[in-house]
Design goal:
heterotrimer, A alpha+beta, B alpha/beta, C alpha+beta, A: alpha+beta, PF0523-like, C: alpha+beta, Phosphorylase Kinase, domain 1, 2 domains, 5-stranded antiparallel beta sheet, two-stranded antiparallel sheet, 46% helix, Kae1_archaea_euk (chain B), metal-binding (chain B), nucleus (chain B)
């Protein structure tokens, strides 16, 4: 699990994990809305920079009360998209029926604690969340469709 | 170094006398100034330290009824009617019994409205021939600048020149007052005057002053009516803002309740008053002016600002400029004074006398043609380094 | 620089982000920092490497007290966003060198961009075009200068060919960055940048740069401007007939702008 905080907004903590060969994607998809974390299709993410850029933006919007979705986790998914179309963003960056590589991410206030078991519902193999692992799993054709 | 003493005063006197005639717009001004002949000016860059003395400064303004502007023909007639009276009064106040004592007669060569300029230059030529005194043609803007420098002793300020006909940000460089930014269409004073005409508020004492007073009465200063903000690099444009705020004012007067900005769409209640419009217009226009002035200051590395021209009398503009300067390290505003803000004869005499002392006089009456278009940067500023 | 402005930005960047002021313009104050706004430190390089090498630039548009708060907010947001957008667009154009945009904070008027350039030897200062030309003043027409200036012209040509204008081209707004031992010019500060298809805007851009070179490097200006224009023309010449025509229009307007000295003649 990668723990990080944005220097400018250190009252938030960020936790993220990368899973591969996830078996219960279909099941997870039905519960997307109720999960306490965001699930991102890892084949759309090429680097930590790309991921945390979106997190930065989401926290920024939240700080100035400009959230366009219902919480910080979902705002992170929206912030990955270059447009402000929420449906489009979830379709592109959210998990799909056949997603095997899933990136789980949560942003919470420092006052809350993040249990190590947070992502336990995801049935897959956890691997290190690193630039190398992301790069090797990216689907450039999918990314190129994002406009 | 500049030698301001190369042309000594008439009759072996130890001081210069100059008469200035100004009439490029609706004000006719006559002023007489005196410069002592000082050794320090023989080899110096002290053109802002002339120790000028104002012997007289008289003026008459042509005022039109509310809702009307001044037309060139009528303004020219006003100037013709008053010229002789004002010159006589000025000489009397200055205590000059023999006008041929004057070293030079200075007149506004431009820019301005053609007909009024013409009336004044005819007067200047007549006096010159009658008294045998050489003429000097002065650029109106340079008149404002030199008067401002002399009074405030600001050595090298960035000049914001805001009046009915001009909106320019000027800085000195290499014997020329370079224009850094200016309006691309109408001048700020013109914009305010025309809005005052739409509102049908009086032209007495001046339309801009009345707008300023209305703006003070605005009760809703937190909620600004949003207007276009049209700074383009160093330049600005104001006709679009005027057109828009004019249309708002008209909707207000015609009780056009369809305009949701002005009237509540449900109750039809009026949301915006004339005072609000005046306030918003001023805030918007002045923010633009201060911004381009700040750009010019950063560009030439200056920390002094001099505001000249009629709109410079506006207290709110002065406040904003002062606030901007405070935020720059030890900036100073040389705000403004009626003496060099509102058109007058003294400023023409001051700039003209500097020109005279550098030997820039008119030898042939054929050179006294006035021009409506006369840019500030066309003048060769011989009296500065 | 006003301490108040520095305090403002330091307060909201928090003590986690140490900043060093490097320049102040009319509109913005520029700082450097060695903290990335969001990337985890161990992402690409080791922490030691990070602190010594990587620098980021923060361009901050301070709150202007003289103007009404609602005008100020709207303008800051509009301009910060505008500059970020133009930088983002430009970085996608092949061949064009602009600094990479890292983050944008429209609410505080901040943009983060990558740091380019270095300090020139013999205390000639930062490696912008101005200092670089000063550094070579003893051998003003050497091959290195010629190559660099042609590249500068090429960059401006690319910018204009893609219908963008810089708005404030000066020798301090061109930064030279070493790339495999060669100086590569990067255009910076798009605060006045815009998209424009007008030949007027392009002509003015070229004129402003020409003036800047004449005023700061007057003795060698003729040759310098010639090399810049050589690079500029090469972009259009590569674009066939259409390019030739467009170039002719721009150069004609450039000539006109030069004659009238940027400004229109106008009524007093």
């Amino acid at each position: 699990m990668l723990r990080h905080s944005i220097p400018q907004f250190d009252s938030y903590q960020i936790c993220a994990s990368l899973f591969t060969d996830v078996e219960n994607t279909r099941e997870l998809r039905t519960e997307v809305a109720s999960m306490p974390f965001a699930m991102i299709d890892a084949s759309c993410i090429g680097s930590l920079e790309q991921l945390f850029c979106a997190v930065y933006k989401a926290i920024l919007e939240s700080t100035y009360n400009r959230l366009r979705t219902k919480n910080l986790n979902s705002e992170c998914i929206l912030s990955l998209s270059p447009t402000s179309n929420i449906g489009e963003a979830f379709k592109r960056f959210g998990i799909k029926e056949d997603s095997k590589d899933i990136l789980c991410l949560t942003v919470v206030n420092n006052t809350e604690s993040i249990p190590d078991t947070l992502f336990d519902d995801v049935k897959g193999q956890q691997i290190e969340l690193s630039d190398e692992n992301l790069e090797s799993r990216i689907n450039l054709d999918l990314i190129k469709k994002v406009r | 170094m500049v030698n301001l003493n190369q042309y000594p005063p008439k009759n072996g006197r130890n001081y210069y006398l100059a008469l200035g005639l100004e009439g490029s717009a609706n004000k006719l001004g006559v002023g007489i100034v005196k410069h002592p002949l000082l050794p320090k000016h023989a080899d110096s860059d002290l053109s802002h330290h002339c120790e000028m003395e104002i012997l007289s400064n008289v003026r008459d303004t042509y005022v039109t009824p509310p809702g009307e502007g001044f037309l060139p023909r009528d303004t020219a007639r006003h100037h013709r009617n008053w010229a002789v009276r004002l010159v006589r009064l000025a000489l009397k106040e200055a205590g000059i019994s023999d006008p041929s004592e004057l070293d030079t007669i200075c007149f506004t060569k431009g820019p301005g409205m053609g007909a009024p300029l013409h009336s004044v230059v005819v007067m200047a030529r007549t006096l010159s021939v009658m008294w045998d005194v050489p003429l000097v043609g002065v650029n109106h803007c340079v008149g404002h600048i030199e008067m401002g420098r002399e009074i405030t002793k600001a050595e090298n300020p960035v000049v914001l020149y805001v009046s009915g006909g001009n909106t320019q940000v000027i800085a000195y460089s290499e014997n020329c007052y370079r224009i850094f930014g200016e309006t691309l269409d109408i001048a700020i004073g013109n914009c305010l005057d025309r809005f005052a005409r739409t509102l049908r508020i009086p032209n007495e004492p001046s339309p801009g002053y009345n707008i300023e007073q209305l703006a003070y009465k605005c009760k809703n200063k937190d909620c600004l009516v949003e207007l276009p903000y049209t700074v383009k690099g160093m330049d600005l444009s104001m006709s679009g803002i005027l057109g828009y705020v004019d249309s708002l004012a008209k909707d207000l007067f015609n009780k056009n309740t369809k305009n949701k900005l002005l009237f509540d769409s449900q109750t039809g209640q009026q949301l915006v008053t004339v005072e609000d419009l005046c306030y918003s217009l001023q805030e918007n226009l002045f923010a633009m002016l201060v911004e381009i002035t700040e750009r010019a200051m950063a560009h030439v590395n200056s920390n002094q600002v001099l505001i000249v021209g009629g709109v410079g009398c506006n207290v709110r503009l002065q406040e904003m400029m002062a606030s901007m300067c405070r935020d720059r390290s030890n900036g100073q505003v040389h705000a403004t004074d009626e003496r060099f803000c509102i058109d007058n004869g003294v400023m023409i005499a001051q700039a003209g006398l500097l020109q005279f002392r550098m030997g820039n006089t008119i030898n042939d009456l054929a050179e006294t043609v006035v021009t409506q278009k006369f840019r500030t940067d066309e003048v060769y500023v011989a009296w500065r380094e | 620089m006003s301490q108040e402005v520095i305090d403002q930005i330091a307060a909201y960047l928090t003590s986690n982000i140490p900043i060093v002021p490097i320049s102040q313009g009319a509109e913005a104050v520029v700082f450097t920092t060695n903290v990335h706004p969001y990337e985890p430190i161990n992402a690409k390089t080791s922490p030691n490497d990070q602190s010594t090498k990587t620098k980021y630039v923060i361009k901050y548009r301070p709150h202007k007290k003289y103007r009404h708060p609602s005008i100020d907010r709207a303008l800051t947001k509009h301009r910060t966003l505008g500059e970020s957008k133009i930088l983002a667009k430009l970085s996608q154009l092949p061949g064009l060198h602009v600094p990479k945009l890292i983050a944008t904070d429209v609410y505080n008027g901040c943009i983060w961009i990558e740091f380019l350039g270095e300090d020139l030897p013999d205390s000639f200062g930062f490696s912008n075009l101005k200092n670089y030309l000063w550094m070579h003043a003893s051998d003003p027409y050497c091959d290195d200068v010629k190559k660099t200036l042609i590249k500068v012209g090429h960059q401006i040509g690319l910018l204009h060919w893609n219908d963008y204008c810089h708005g404030d081209l000066t020798t301090s707004n061109v930064v030279l960055h070493q790339d495999n031992g060669h100086w590569e010019p990067y255009l910076i500060d798009f605060g006045l940048g815009s998209t424009s298809t007008l030949v007027e805007d392009k002509g003015v851009d070229l004129y402003v740069l020409e003036r800047a070179i004449i005023s700061t490097h007057s003795r060698f200006a003729a040759k310098y401007n010639e090399w810049i224009m050589q690079g500029f023309r090469s972009v259009y010449e590569d674009e066939g007939k259409k390019g030739q025509q467009k170039m002719k229009d721009i150069l004609k307007r450039f000539e006109e702008v030069r004659l009238r000295g940027r400004k229109r003649s106008m009524l007093g």
